[in-house]
Amino acid sequence: MEIGYAPATGVLSNIWLLVAIPLASAAILLLLGKRADKWGHWLGVASVAASFVLGLIFFVSLSGLEASQRSAELSLWDFIVVGRLNVDFGLLFDPLAGVFVLLITGVGSLIHLYAVGYMEHDPGRRKFFAYFNLFVSAMLLLVLGNNYVMLYFGWEGVGLASYLLISFWYTRPSAATAGKKAFLMNRVGDAGLAIGIFLMFTELGSTQYSDVFNGVDSLAAGTVLVMGILLLLGACGKSGQFPLQAWLPDAMEGPTPVSALIHAATMVTAGVYLIARSNPIFSANTTLQLVVVSIGALTLLIGCVIGAAKDDIKRVLAWSTVSQIGYMFLGVGLGGGAYALAIVHLLAHGFFKANMFLGAGSVMHGMHDQVDIRRFGGLSKHMKITWLTFGTGWLAIIGIPPLSGYFSKEPIIAAAFEREVVWEAWVFGMAALIGAGLTAFYMTRLFVLTFHGPARWTEDNQHPHESPAIMTIPLILLAIGSVGAGFLMSTSVPDWLTPVFGEHGEEAHGVLSHTVITVLSLVVTIIGAGLAWALFRRGTALEPQPAGVLVTAARRNLYTDAFNEAVFERPGIYLTRALVYLDGKGIDGLVNGLAAAVGGGSGRLRRLQTGFVRSYALSMLTGAMLVVGAFLAIQLGWLA
Amino acid sequence: MESLQLPPIDYGALLPMLILFGAACLGVVAEVLIPQRARNAVQLGLALLAVVAALVAVVWQRGTRTITIGGAVAVDGPTLFLQGSILVLGGVSLLLIGERSIERGGAFVSQAAITVGSQKDMQQAGGRPGATEVYPLTVFALGGMLLFVAANDLLTMFVALEVFSLPLYLLCALARRRRLLSQEAALKYFLLGSYASAFFLFGVAFVYGYAGGIQLDVVHEAVANPQRSEVLLYVGLAMVAIGLLFKAALAPFHVWTPDVYQGAPTPVTAFMAACTKVAAFGALLRILYVAFEGVRWSFQPILGTIAVLTMFIGAILAVTQTDLKRLLAYSSIANAGYLLVGVLALNEEGLSGTMFYLVAYGFSVLAAFAIISLVRDADGEATHLSRWAGIGRKSPLLAGVFTFILLTFAGIPLTSGFTSKFAVFGAAVEGGQTWLVIFGVITSMLLAFPYLRVVVLMWLSEPGESAPTVSIPGFLTSAVLGIGVIVTVALGVVPAPLIDLTREASEFVR
Q1: 3 state SS of B452
Q2: Domain limits, chain B
Q3: CA-to-CA distance for B462 and B173, rounded, in angstroms?
Q4: Tens of pLDDT, residues A482-505
Q5: Do A628 and B235 lie within an 8 Å CB cutoff?
Q6: What is the pLDDT of residue A261?
Q7: Does A504 lie in the same domain as A363?
Q8: pLDDT at res. A334
Q9: What tens digit of pLDDT does each residue of B299-346 get?
Q10: Which of A96, A132, B119, B439 has the fewest Cβ atoms nearer than 10 Å?
Q11: Taking 60 as the threshold, does the pLDDT of residue B1 lie above it?
């Protein structure tokens, strides 16, 4: 199938405004400095809200087009023109970009609004909003680019914003370290993405989506595999997937709105976007798809297991993000109709996870920034709105119908069971199913320990109270999204995305029938949730208790940090030391030696410049004799 | 007996030279007729007018491709481009020479040969105005240079060489301050210059003996169809080349340069660094491309060795210089090496690249010397490096401009130093002379050190106890600085128009 995009016309030729407005706002906030302290946050909110309104307008006008014409490509200017490389500064607004724009700006607006209240007493609030706007702008560029270089541009932009915001409270050593960790691990992934783009350029001569996707068929299977693995490496880095997942939970050191917007709802899903966008590449190689599916399945289990052992409310949510993105990877890896399912889950997750993160922020707001769920309990009486909204998020993520998670996760589990190879269907299907049970367990644990059971507050003068309206209104709106969006999206979004992912008929039935899977997934969910409820409804000890091998391992992130430290960090440190030594003794020695030699030579040569005209004449005469002699010698063959 | 026929003369093609020589003679007359008070303004005006008129004539003649006066003068693309460059750079130099506000009475005296320390010498150095003789001398030199790059036979070339050299010798001795140093420089330059001229003339005799003629096309013919012993040819070529290498300050014939650059009045140093370089390389290009192109395989390695030697000597000796004018002299020597690399490419790119380099370097070096003329103390210019320590704190603008010029010399991108080096190195690679480029890059790295040392000194060092004063530049010096900096930036950022111009002009007539 030839892939082409229609040029942007009419209203859609203004899509650049989506990126430009938040960027301009960020620039104003950063450049005006303290002068913008009083009203800067409102500008930040307004710019994202304006992008959202524009996004809606563009979305509506896009949906007014005929299905086959439903895309708008806008080339703004030549970005890089060097030799054969010709990169447009171009944007592409198509159904896939459209839903991302709405997610980013819609959820983004609510979280911006929430942050006005959350960051009220922080002296750096203006700077926070500047970075936040910068993030939105970069994220929109990422999803709106019409070639891989633009995507990379946005990719690095969100990486920068993420780094700045994780270490926003840079005076805390833990925040500074977390920022650095995120930055370094992302670098690994970004390098993969960059090399993948280089490979596209050398193999296909272009980085334009349309050229790359149309050219995939002409490539050798091995090339496609390598290209896909490189893109996947980038996706794993950005989305916190195995083996690059370790930075994401640490990223919770940033302010809670950051965790909600960047490290739950939007940026971390960029990897899913990358794979979905590159679907012609990933669909072209089954080995590649198997790798993606494996990573998704493995990560979703890792996330569940570790999430069940953590006591920090934001860490639990972070590991659950890792796990849920694992589901999305599973979906995009399965290919075919499951691309759309993954995107549906991504959107639904954007709502309920943002909702829960903001809820967690609201809890911390009322509990003196306490984050240990062992020291909460009984908060449902004091924070009614937070309790109710968090409750909808909880029910949504564990997949209770009719909330959104049910409609988005259950089809992915079903799709996993439909893989053609039988053992694969069993392995990945069971992984997804077990993951659903574990999710129900640890999310219920989180919910019960926080809001129910006896109060286990340990700090004096703790008066849990509900947050102000500016924080609860976004919570309520997001809760409505968590409840209602699922059904809406699971029916309409796959159709809407057909121009991007192509038509897919009814899949052949897998190893289990659809009904059986639905029943099974509900059963494991109820078992997991019920178990957690039974275990924790009377509260728990204030400190972590000694536990078996598995729980200890899970508490230590399944030793992945230890592994990284032993395999990468220590040898890296030794390598650095060796290089410093080599640089100091070897290279600097050589350089200094050379410099000394030049200086010495210069001093010696200087003495030839005596100032006496007679010696000058002599040196000229010598030179003349040498020149004449050389001519004669070379020409007349006296040397030969 | 045949009657002597007057060869046809294309006066239009000769007009730029005629204007300058005429104006110079007028200047000598004006020296006598115009009263003292008005003389400076009249002479400067006359000289500038002549330069502008000659430039207009060059532009008017831009389409001319001809050989005239019986084969003595060739007016073609390179001639016109180089003449235009010499006129523009010479005009800017005249502004520097005409500056009177920095030093009372200007930087020049009127009598070069008075014994230093005598009462008369004290008198003329003591602030008596006058010294307008520099203008006709400069215009004579400029006229000689125009003829030098147009000369199509070796004797005309020799005459032109002398016509522009003799005024320069004299100009070097006219410094108002440090009279003894100035006279010493002039005498050294004169003695060594005559010595080199003798080589040149001797070489012309050998070439005549070989080819039976002195016109470049005759030599070219003879090289293509050898009739006589090649010893004559190679000795002749070597000696002619030596005469030109001397003027272009290439090792080992560069020895005069530091002493002369240091001793000469700074405006004259600037004039020599910019214009003499253009003239010398113009003639070298013509001789090598027009007359001896047929034996390129024999002179390429030898002149290549000289280029490498020059680049190294310039770069290495610049490292330990403590006087700014000497430092710039060695930098100019190294730049001559880079120019020779472009010349030795022996292709069209080499020709156009070398011409581009000459113009770009000329403007930067004029600006550099203009700045040096501004930093002064009671004894005149403070050219010792230590006196420049910390000058950036008091005069950030001056230090900033000088930093920019030094970075240009170092060849930092977005300055003309980068584009011009790129042009000659690119041409040399194209012409199969990659080894020269390798040495060129190595010496560029070495040379960055002395430049950056000055930059560090200006900005990061503590000022000394008796810091020199920085004069407020007069209108003329400001104009030179402005023009130099603007052209340097322009040629670094948008070099294309000038490169196109050099490409169009890169064909000799034979």
Answers
A1: helix
A2: 11-504
A3: 35
A4: 887 776 677 787 878 888 887 766
A5: yes
A6: 84
A7: yes
A8: 87
A9: 999 999 999 999 999 999 999 899 999 999 999 999 999 999 999 999
A10: B119
A11: no
Whether A629 is covered by a domain: the verdict is no
Whether B176 has a pLDDT exceeding 90, the answer reads: no
Contact status, residue A113 vs residue A360, Cβ threshold 8 Å? no
Distance from CA of B142 to the nearest CA of A (A): 27
Q: Do A611 and B259 touch (CB under 8 A)?
A: yes
pLDDT tens for residues B365-383?
999 999 999 988 887 888 8
Structural domain of residue A170, as residue ranges?
1-186+240-273
- pLDDT value of residue B4: 77
Instruction: Nearest by CB to A620, from B231, B255, B299: name it.
Output: B255
Residues of A near B (Cβ–Cβ under 8 Å) read 595, 598-599, 601-603, 605-606, 609, 611, 613, 616-617, 619-620, 622-624, 626-628, 630-632, 634-636
Contacts of A616 in chain B (CB under 8 A): 188, 192, 255-256
- What is the predicted pLDDT for the residue at B244? 94
Nearest CB among B188, B253, B256 relative to A623 is that of B253
DSSP H/E element including A93 = strand A85-93
Report the pLDDT value the prediction gives residue A496, as an integer from 0 to 100: 82
Instruction: Say what the pLDDT of residue A461 is.
Output: 66
Residue A614 lies in a domain: no
Task: Provide the b/e sequence for A408-427 (b: ≥16 CB within 10 Å).
Answer: bbbbbbbbbbbbeeeebbbb
Do A268 and A299 lie in one domain? The reply is no
Chain-chain contact of B235 with A630 (C-beta, under 8 angstroms): no
Claim to verify: residue A356 and residue A244 sit in the same structural domain: no
**CA dist., res. A264 & res. A255, Å (int):** 13
Mutation site for A-interface testing, chosen from B172, B246, B255, B303 by largest number of A Cβ within 10 Å: B255
A162 shares a domain with A304: no
What's the CA gap between A68 and A74, in Å, rounded?
A: 17
For residue A638, the model assigns a pLDDT of 59
The helix (run of H) or strand (run of E) holding residue A469 is helix A469-496
What are the helix (H) ranges across B373-474?
391-394, 396-410, 416-430, 434-460
| Domains held by chain A: number | 2
Provide, rounded to the nearest whole percent, the portion of chain A with pLDDT above 90: 22
Give contacts of B237 with chain A, Cβ < 8 Å. Answer: 631
pLDDT of B112: 82
Last residue of a domain, one of A536, A555, A574: A555
Same domain, A325 and A268: no
pLDDT category at A375 given cuts 50, 70, 90 is confident
Measured between beta carbons, the chain B residues lying within 8 angstroms of A617 are: 191-192, 195
What does the pLDDT look like over B282-298, one tens digit per residue?
999 999 999 998 888 88
Q: A555 vs B48, which has greater pLDDT?
A: B48
Residues A409 and A349 in one domain: yes
Confidence of residue B51 (pLDDT cuts 50, 70, 90): very high
Q: Which contiguous run of DSSP H or E holds residue A286? A: helix A286-309
Residue with tokens 């000890």: A541
Chain B neighbors of A603, CB-CB under 8 A: 320
Q: What is the mean pLDDT of residues A65-69?
A: 78
- CA-CA-CA-CA torsion sign (B92, B98, B101, B104): positive
CB neighbour list of residue B157: distance below 8 Å, 6 or more residues apart:
B148, B151, B283, B287
Q: Which residue of B lies nearest to A607 if distances are taken between CA atoms?
A: B317
Domain co-membership, A164 together with A25: yes
Task: Report yes or no: B262 and B319 within 8 Å, Cβ to Cβ.
Answer: no
Name which of B244, B245, B247, B218 is nearest B233 in CA terms. Answer: B218
Nearest to A450 by CA among A551, A362, A336: A362
Q: What is the least distance, in Å, from the CA of A621 to any CA of chain B?
A: 9
Q: Does B298 touch chain A (CB under 8 A)?
A: yes
